[in-house]
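Appendix B, record 7
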Amino acid sequence: PSGVTLDSTGATITGALTMRPAFHANLSANQTVSDATDTKVQFDTEVLDTDGCYDNTTNYRFTPTTAGKYFVYSSLHCNAVAADNFLLGTTTIKKNGSNEIYQQLDQRTTANGYSSSVAAFGIVDMNGSSDYLESWGYIDSTGGTQRISGNGSAQYSLFGAYRIIGT
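Structure tokens (predicted):
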């Protein structure tokens, strides 16, 4: 049928009633990143991939095969490894290699920290053929090693998206 009747007033919804394609992936181990350098995060563990649109081994990107509006999200646990080294962390969701959604945590004018999670989320139009999404992280610290935290049993850093129905 072309729609589903919801109540006695005749209200209906038309179109596909699934939020597909959809994916959710996380980082299974720490990913070391260079200081103050934008780095693609290699989300390697798929929790959900309804249509096989997420590449968790090579490009670490979501290329949905259905056009529409997508809710996309990413949260990165930015870790400066040593106390008082963390200055700034960002999470950027890029569409076709260009910044689309950006969030930043800046502690440069306050007390420096050890680590922090930075989440970015929003709605993105996708063409269903060539558009793709990636999550990138950036950590600035006063020295030492920086990493995006990952873990095999808990989702410290994550990335996902799903098509919004009814749009």
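Remarks on this record: The longest strand covers residues 68-79. The CA atoms of residues 33 and 102 lie 18 Å apart.
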